[in-house]
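Quick start: read one record
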Amino acid sequence: MIVDDDYFVVTALERKINWRSLNIEQVYTAHNVAQAREILQQHPVHILISDIEMPQGSGLELLAWIREMNYNVQAILLTNYADFNYAQKAIELQSFEYFLKPIEFDKLMLIIQKAVQRVKEQQSAQRAIQEGQYWQRNHSKMLEHFWRKLISDSSSSLIKPAVLAESIREQNLDYRLDDKVQPLLFHLFPHNGSMGSQEKGLFDFALQNVFYELFQQPSFSVDTMLEYKDDHWMAMLKWKGAPEQDLLRELCASFLQKARPYLKCEACCTIALPSQMEGVSLCIRQLLTMDSEMVQARNEIYDVQDYLELAREPAEYAAPDLAHWEELLNRNQPEVLLAETSRYLRGRLSHRMLNVSVLSLFRLDLVQLVYSFLKMKGIQAHKLYTGKTHEQLLAQSLNSIEDMEAFVQDLVTTAMEYRDFTERATSVVEEIKQHILSHYGDELSRNDLAEIVYLNPDYLARLFKKETGISLGSYVIQVRIAAAKQLLETTSLSVYAVANKVGYGNYSYFSKLFKQAVGCSPNEYKKEQQGSF
C-alpha cells in the first residue's frame, strides 16, 4: 500500500515501479491515514510505503497504530527532511527503511525488493515453525559459517580430510568427502559514488541478487556466497554431475557484463580447480594465493590452472627505460610518459610476466623517479603527496592494472602541476607573503615557510631573495615591525604584550630589532605616538 497526500507522488510510484518484477500482486493507494486504516482492516497488506508529513495524520502515527493492531507489515517511510527525531521514532516503531525524498526509483526498487525478501523469510519461518522444521531457517547460516571458517583456516594451513569429515558430522551438513565442489572468487571494484562505496547493505543485497539469478543452474547448487574480505566474495558450488568449465566461464562472463549497469562496479572472476570435498582446503588455498600474487585486469576471467602453470616459472622484474622516462619529465611530456607506463604494464601482463611482486618493484622505481625529479626542482615530495586521495590510490595500486594506472597518473600529474606552479616564482612568493602577513605572530622559521609550499628551505630562500630583493628573514622582520608599530599606535597594549603578539617572546631581541628598523625603542615610539594626540 502507498500512502501519500501528494497525488502525483502516488501516481509516480504506481507507474514507475515494476511491481510485477517484484512479485507484488496488488497495490493499494491511500491519501491519508484514515483511508489507509480502512484498507488495512479489509485487506492483507505486507508492505507499506508511506509519507511521514501529511495534514490529516502522519505516517509515524499510522505505523504506531499498525504496531498496536499487531499487523505484520514492513514499513518504508518517506520524508523530505533528514530529521533525527523522525528517524529515532521510525526505529522505535520497527520501520523497515527510512528513505529521503526526492525518490530515486532504482534505490527504492532495491529497498522494496529487500522488504519482499523479508516478508518471504517471515512467511517461510512461520511455515517452518508450524511444521517443526527449524533447521530450514538456519541451514544457510550454518553453511556460511562452515565455509567461512574453512576459507579462514585454509589460508594458513591445509585441513586434513579426517578433520573436515568430523566438522561435517558435527554440524550435520549434507556433504560427503567424494562430493564434487568448486569455489569461485569475485574481486569487485565499486566506482566512486556507487552503492558499493556509499550504501554497503544495499550493494551487497543487489550483488547477491544478480549472482543467484545468473547461477541458478540444474547442474550445480550454490551452497553459499560470502564476502571474506573487503570487496572479495567467494561462492561455493556443489556439482550434481561432472564439472562443466565452459558453462562456468559463460556464467562468469554474464556476471561481468551485468556488474557495470546493475551494480555500478567492475569486477574480475577467478575459477578454482574442481575438487572432491576431501581436497577442497587445498583448492581454496590455491585460489587465495593466486588472488594475492597475481596482477589482475578488470572485467577478465582467470583460471587457477593458468596460475599454477605460471608459478613454475616466476616472473622476474625487468626495469623499463627509466632514463628515457626521466627525460620525458624534464621535457615536460607527462602524457607521453603515462602512455609509455601503461604500454609497459599491459605488455608485461599480456606476456604473463607480471605479478604483485614485480608490480611492487615497478611502483618503487617510478616513485623514486618522480621524487628525484621533484628534488631537483627543490620540491619536497613527501609533503606534496600527503592526503587521503593519494594514500587511497597508493593502497589500491596493487589491486589491478587499472588501479596502478590511476596511481601513476596521480603521481605524475601532481608532480607536473606543482612543478609548473613553482616555476611561476611570483605565485610562490605571493603565497609566502600572504602567509607571513596573516601569521606574523606565529613561528615563521625558514623550514616552516618552506613546508607551506612543499619546497626545500634553501631553494625557497634563494627564490624569495631573487624575486623580492630582500631575504626571507628580513621580510618577516619588516612585517612584524610594521605590525608592532600599528599596535603601539592604535592599542593600549603594553610593549611586552605587543612583542609577544608579533612573534617575539624575547623582549630584548624585539627591542633591538625595533630600534634598528625605526630609530628609537618601542617605549619611545609608544610615548611619541601618545604625545601626538
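Residues 329 and 337 are 7 Å apart (CA to CA).
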